[in-house]
């Protein structure tokens, strides 16, 4: 029997080499994330694979799985440990090698395999690792599956079985390449900065976009898992500013930035100005709702209020549903509701049939943006952006808060605003227009200015976003209001970025 995992082990000891280390907090709401070495060791990853295989059998799913890994110095080793555990659980493993997360999701369809486990830390800093998992394509795990997996792994309940095997899938990126490029080229010339932050997307994105007729200006597309310039995260201002500089220097029409595992796309316009992903979503929703009348969209609670107030979307009969932040929650909601697209402020876009297969793929998102430009040859991206009603929005801001404390803090903040609303009290002298508590709390004042507080699903942080359709000053007012509530909780630390 494989040893039962421990929550804490001292490195460089006999126990560390003979006992699985799996810190319980690594099991997040919809995927798994650990600091490799201090929170999980290779035996711990093996225990995770054994537990995942056990869960697959428990769910009655055909015991076959696609695995892949992102470009980090340790990801291949972690994937091999995961595969060993899966095979020990009687699972037939199909390894597609170095891959983007959406390439692994695509492989479920292309190879007709029900399950997926992608080894990636996504946009997290070096040192982190994790696994994105699913057994019902195109969905990935949500809280129920993650809770059961945690119970199996930490409880030492995993069971070894016969029948496991390993198969390496040769040249699978070519299958993915053909899937995205087997379509007409763009009709009009488009010059695009393609930024990859030296992450995994650099191996695939430039070639795919060039095949569609894009004039690619590469930016940090060489693979380098030390991430020498900045972390590949197109939600961070450092990467967006590098894209801005490259767009202005090259005269490009657009800057497209991909995160570490390629499931998100960040955008900079022809003036070098970053467009937050929710505003890009409104632009795409305008474009697509003109082609697909009465289109339904799903957006996360961090996103702009324009999805329900924009006059073009209203005229096109578009309907928008605000839902929980998180790629697994959004993916499930899009597929269960039959929405055309799901837009998440972090840059995860979920294109459903006939555009995509319902999972998040940064390259599919980039192609949709390029198609939008191609359908509007007389307009620059900046002009399409400026045609939106004006709002003032913050970036996603994340104050530190320990994993063990963050959900309690958010619960207290929700109760605070629910109490204000129940008593008819005002915020900044205005009545509370509405509260959305499906994921943390989104409080909206009478003038449409709003603030959001929720717990990060994959890091020891909270998430704060504010927006106002009135003025920049009102946006700052909402931030002061929300931050003032957070500062009553000493567990809440410094922000990663702030207004």
TrEMBL record:
GO terms for biological process: carbohydrate metabolic process. InterPro entries: A-D-PHexomutase_a/b/a-I (IPR005844), A-D-PHexomutase_a/b/a-I/II/III (IPR016055), A-D-PHexomutase_a/b/a-II (IPR005845), A-D-PHexomutase_a/b/a-III (IPR005846), A-D-PHexomutase_C (IPR005843), A-D-PHexomutase_C_sf (IPR036900), Alpha-D-phosphohexomutase_SF (IPR005841). Pfam families: PGM_PMM_I, PGM_PMM_II, PGM_PMM_III, PGM_PMM_IV. Gene3D superfamilies: Alpha-D-Glucose-1,6-Bisphosphate, subunit A, domain 3, Alpha-D-phosphohexomutase, C-terminal domain. The keyword rRNA processing does not apply. Its cofactor is Mg(2+). Residues 26-153, 179-272, 278-390 form the Alpha-D-phosphohexomutase alpha/beta/alpha domain. GO terms for molecular function: intramolecular phosphotransferase activity; metal ion binding. Coiled coil: none annotated. Keywords: Isomerase, Magnesium, Metal-binding, Phosphoprotein. Residues 419-479 form the Alpha-D-phosphohexomutase C-terminal domain. Belongs to the phosphohexose mutase family. This is Phosphomannomutase/phosphoglucomutase. It comes from Ancylobacter pratisalsi.
């Amino acid at each position: 029997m494989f040893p039962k995992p421990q929550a804490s082990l001292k490195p460089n000891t006999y126990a560390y080499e003979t006992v699985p280390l799996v810190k319980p907090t690594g099991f997040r709401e919809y995927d798994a994330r650990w600091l490799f070495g201090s929170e999980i060791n290779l035996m711990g990853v093996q225990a995770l694979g054994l537990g995942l295989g056990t869960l697959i059998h428990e769910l009655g799913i055909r015991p076959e799985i696609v695995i892949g890994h992102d470009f980090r110095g340790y990801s291949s080793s972690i994937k091999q440990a995961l595969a060993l555990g899966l095979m020990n659980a009687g699972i037939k493993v199909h390894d597609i090698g170095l891959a983007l997360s959406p390439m692994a999701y695509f492989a479920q369809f292309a190879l007709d395999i029900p399950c997926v486990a992608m080894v990636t830390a996504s946009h997290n800093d070096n040192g982190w690792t994790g696994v994105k998992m699913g057994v019902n394509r195109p969905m990935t795990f949500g809280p129920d599956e993650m809770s059961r997996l945690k119970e199996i792994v930490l409880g030492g309940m995993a069971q070894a079985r016969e029948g496991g095997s390993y198969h390496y899938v040769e040249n699978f990126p070519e299958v993915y390449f053909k899937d995205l490029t087997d379509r007409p080229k763009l009709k009009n010339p488009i010059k695009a900065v393609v930024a990859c932050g030296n992450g995994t997307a650099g191996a695939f994105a430039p070639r795919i976009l060039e095949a569609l007729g894009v004039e690619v200006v590469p930016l940090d597309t060489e693979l380098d898992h030390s991430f020498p310039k900045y972390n590949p995260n197109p939600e961070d201002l450092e990467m967006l500013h590098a894209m801005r500089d490259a767009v202005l220097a090259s005269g490009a029409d657009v800057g497209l930035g991909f995160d570490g595992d390629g499931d998100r796309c960040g955008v900079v316009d022809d003036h070098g100005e970053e467009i937050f992903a929710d505003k890009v979503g409104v632009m795409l929703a305008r474009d697509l709702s003109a082609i697909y009348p009465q289109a339904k969209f799903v957006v996360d609670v961090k996103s702009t209020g324009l999805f329900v107030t924009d006059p073009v979307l209203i005229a096109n009969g578009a309907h928008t549903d605000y839902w929980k932040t998180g790629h697994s929650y959004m993916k499930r909601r899009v597929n269960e509701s039959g929405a055309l697209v799901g837009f998440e402020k972090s840059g995860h876009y979920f294109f459903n049939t006939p555009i995509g297969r319902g999972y998040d793929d940064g390259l599919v998102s980039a192609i949709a943006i390029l198609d939008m430009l191609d359908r509007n040859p007389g307009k620059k991206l900046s002009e399409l952006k400026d045609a939106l009603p004006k709002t003032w929005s913050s970036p996603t801001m994340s104050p530190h808060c320990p994993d063990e404390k963050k959900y309690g803090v958010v619960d207290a903040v929700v109760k605070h605003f629910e109490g204000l609303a129940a008593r008819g009290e005002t915020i900044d002298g205005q009545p509370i227009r509405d509260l959305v508590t499906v994921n943390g709390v989104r409080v909206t004042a009478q003038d449409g200015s709003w603030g959001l507080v929720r717990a990060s699903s994959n890091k020891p942080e909270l998430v704060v976003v504010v927006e106002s359709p009135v003025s920049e000053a009102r946006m700052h007012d909402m931030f002061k209001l929300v931050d003032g509530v957070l500062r009553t909780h000493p567990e809440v630390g410094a922000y990663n970025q702030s207004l």
